[in-house]
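Fresh eyes needed here. Have a critical look at this protein's tokenised backbone.
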Amino acid sequence: MEEFAMSTPTPVALECATCRPPNRRLTFFERYRGFLLSTNTLITVVNGLLLLAGFVASLAIDARWPANVLYIASALVGGAPIFLLAARGIARLDLTAGVMVSVAMIAALLIGEYSAAALVAFMMMFGELLENLAVARSDDALKELASLIPAQVTLLLEDGEKVVGIEQVRLGDRLLVRNGERIPVDGAVRDGQAAVDEAAITGESLPVDKAAGDTVYAGTINTAGTLVIEAEKLGRDTTLGTIVKLVEEAQRTQAPTQRLANRYARILVPITFAVAIAVYLITGELVRSVTVLVVVCPCALVLATPTALVAAIGNAARNNVIVKTGAHMEMLGKIDVVAFDKTGTLTLGRPEVVQVTVLDGANSDDVLASAASAERASEHPLGRAIVRAATDRGLSILPAETSQVLTGFGVEARSGGRRVLVGRLSLLAD
């Protein structure tokens, strides 16, 4: 938007995650502190309170002057940023919608329509407030993405290991990532084996096995095993950082509809001035002329488009959908067919056991119960699916006497005096 001081998405730092106690949800004030304490928000609140006070005074007090004073104060407080940007537009010989609003407000004040001037100022500021809220919500979605980077990491040194802040990590450093921890950098696995949940980056629903030489990404989760990683990309240079930058760039770009709205606003402003002057010349009534300026104001058109786009792009990012530009977001409304390169990105990430096939006359319930016993303590999605299936059938799941996770292959356990292997065919072949 060009007429008012629009808030733009704040660049998000990816150097560390928000340092707060685990499982504690941020309050509304903590999430939107910048928006709530911004100058535009405070001006809108004061503008609205003065307008409300003026309305109450007009009903409660017989004299008109107290209400008029409050209305004038409301108009001046709310109109100040509008007047300022209108002056800048005139200096550039750019007749924006803000110029027309400013003229309408000043004219309303001059003819004694103080409440109308205050109401117009409040409507414009409130419209911008809604836009800024959409930007703040979008920023919140970006911060959620950025918070996938852990605040502290385990740095491997020649004489041992040391827990340091992510900001102290340098390219080439070797980091230790244990089971359950998030990977802090893009890098290469130098030692160890693990199953890594890459859903936040690739959308794949199942963990991917990683071993020496494989690439891992910042923000993904080590679900089983231990890895030694050599840092190759940090912060905003990581794949996660690139995703955040793409969303930020998309929010800053103008979609075709937004550019069209701004173009029409520039055409409509001089036409409206001409019509308002014509109305005054024909009727001789200044009130009707001012009414034309207020009613035809295209600010709703100019405000609505960027607000909708910023909100839509932010909500998409919150749901792990990355939209590169506003133009691409608009194109979604014209799409008839969508082709996906893989089905993994479309699943719920919750595998289910749909059939148990047994060999040599074995009992399917016994096989499922033995597998569930071996997977009872597993965090792997497939292991949890096996345990859920056994529980749903009402089977007795005995605690495994011994259990060992064979990273990249499966699980070996002893249950009920029997050796149980659950995993890849290669595990069974060995």
